[in-house]
Amino acid sequence: MARPLVITEDQALLDDLVRVAAAAGAQLDVAHSPALARPQWSVAPVVVVGDDLAEELAATGPPARQRVFLATRDLSDPGAWRRCVAVGAQAVIDLPDDERRLVEEFADALEPASRAGVIACVVGGRGGAGASVLSACLALKASGDRLRTLLVDADRLGGGIDALLGREEAAGARWGDLTAREGRINAGALQAALPAFGDLALLSFGRGEVAPIPPAAMRSVLEAGRRGFDLVVADLPRHLDPAAVEALARAETTFLVATADVRGVLAAGQVLRELTRHTADARVVTRPGVLSDQAVAETLAIPCAGRLPDHPRLPAALNRGELPRLGARTALGVLCGTLVHTLVAGS
């Protein structure tokens, strides 16, 4: 794959650009003169022209192309914009103020194809409703159907969805490794860093003390997930923190798991009031109880997406690291298959 091209003799500027590229996971081709840049000019995904060589480059009449930027460390120079036009650049990048934009441009160059995946959130109407189990089973079903799937554990006090799947010892990055990142995360780098089995990648918390997820980190992970996966499933806490709000704002659909009894529906109604402030499409998934699915849906005034069946042996099986069978003949498999199909078909 061709690499971004930098044209400059300014060592201080080059040092800044190398650091910015490293933040995007990119390596650069560097040309110290317009003549040396000519072979890469048309094939490089991004070209960054140092202000020091802009006039010399313009004199060679380079062919017009997209994604050319003029990099400067002195935007106060009124001639910078004239040189920007002369080299056919689309914008002036003022370093260090515009570093984040350049990080995103370099990251884009590394992942030209986008999957435009779907993001779905799952929230429990009350404690123990089964939201984490539904999240895990949705992800397992999707990955079993050969959809590249990312399961995101956003409940830092939930005990770890990796433990639910018996994967707490799996090697790979956890939230603690990602929360310091700012700006865009490369989708390929995220896939390579996370624990994975088959087509399922998992982002959970480490053991011990865990810090809240910064909203910017959640935003970066979900957007990378959208670009690199077919489906992203986020297991959210009932008490919405800023990171959960960030996830809800990006979700195509949010499933609220509610037990079909009076207290369960009342609790789910309280959670739903918070959800609807941040997400456009909320649907209830019921747990069996004394109320009918229709009564639960009518009380909450949202559509019923299905019923999560009781599975008495499921928790013990998961604790042993045994994944549930989600075949077409099982009630759980039918539910998850229907939900996954609805999510992906609607994208």
UniProtKB/TrEMBL annotation:
Pfam family, one: Rv3660c_N
Domain Rv3660c-like CheY-like N-terminal, chain residue ranges per copy: 7-114
Domain of life: Bacteria
InterPro entries: P-loop_NTPase, ParA/MinD_ATPase, Rv3660c, Rv3660c_N
PANTHER family: SEPTUM SITE DETERMINING PROTEIN, SEPTUM SITE-DETERMINING PROTEIN MIND HOMOLOG, CHLOROPLASTIC-RELATED
UniProt-listed NCBIfam families: CpaE_hom_Actino
Protein name: Septum site-determining protein Ssd
Gene this protein is translated from: ssd
